[in-house]
Amino acid sequence: KPDLLLVDLGLPDGDGVKVIRRIRDWSPVPIIVLSARTMEEQKVAALDAGADDYLTKPFGVNELLARIRVALRHAAETAAGDAPARIEIGPLRIDLESREVTADGKPVHLTPIEYRLLVHLARNAGKVLTHRQILKEVWGPPYVEETHYLRVFMAQLRRKIEIDPARPRFLVTEQGVGYRLKES
What we know:
With about 180 residues, the chain is α+β, with helices and mostly antiparallel strands. About 40% of the residues lie in helices and about 20% in strands. The protein folds into two domains: about 5-80, Rossmann fold (3-Layer(aba) Sandwich); about 85-180, Winged helix-like DNA-binding domain superfamily/Winged helix DNA-binding domain (Arc Repressor Mutant, subunit A, Orthogonal Bundle), CATH 1.10.10.10.
């Protein structure tokens, strides 16, 4: 998942405002619009569709970089206010600030997707998450039907976290539905 999106309203194959609306349907990612359109109603339409900022062309690189820093800072402040810095479930510890994971006190090295998958399950510990919910959150909406991705990554996570991956204690399959991270 991207940390921030730069969107031009004058897309060759579609309308930038529609793209912003579609993104907002599934993601809170900060969106900065870069556009040659200068009319107030066009700016308002983009902001009302879900853009966080609007920058009119031409602009300086330093101004763009400053606006990116502001958007990322606001996103980090929002995320920090919404979630704890550490998640602990049984022998599993996830430090969200340092992105470090330990199981039974031993460091666990995860790929970026494995990490996002584990964090999503941990933030919803005890809840059954459907295949589609997990795929949408971790990979994005275009991948909601790609259940084989999820099976492969769950197997990898189990090998790294579970004592006996064939009989998982924490990363549990809910047959025909999805997965659940047991709280203990």
